[in-house]
Amino acid sequence: LESSLLTQPWASVCFGESAFLAKACFRDTGYILLISDLSGIWYESADAKAVGQRSKELNKRLTVHVSSFLHHLRKLMCPLLAGQPDATTSFSCHHTAGGLSLHVKSELSGLPFYWDFHCCPAPVEMVSCHLVRPLIRMSLALQYQVQELTSLLLQKDAEIEDYRESGAALSRDRLRTEPFQEETFQQNFMAEVRSSAS
Length: 198
What we know:
45% of the residues lie in helices and 29% in strands. The protein is an alpha+beta fold and 198 residues long. The longest helix is centred in the C-terminal third of the chain and has 42 residues. It is elongated, with a radius of gyration of 25 Å.
């Protein structure tokens, strides 16, 4: 399940006034949920046996197979993660001692359906694997892209200057641009990064 979770994108979700990033993977054999508020990261991994046990405790009137519970949970969570939560389903979460609890209220077969995700702090390796390493790889890729675009802009400026020195003139003055200032761009970019981080 965790290897399948690696291929799932992070999604921005809101529970009440609280914003989180979350990703999940559901199979007939169980599920795994990873959720973060960027101050902490929590997860829950539950196999079919654990799902069956909890479903009996929370939904005493429902007598359906465990796979049906898992399928229903997937149907509830996937629209939420896709940014299209079902209006008939409510989600709420609260911090517990050392963890995070996510409560789901919906319907299944015309009866009330309840579910609680009991998330505990994610281990360092999981945080590294799902958050830190991908962010570092993305950051390096973006840095390389910025370097490539900066180089291209400087080349374009040199090309335009060469045209000007050859006597070429713009037919439309509104298309005129100022030469790209790499140092100013870097300073402005870092100022934006610092202000968004504070």
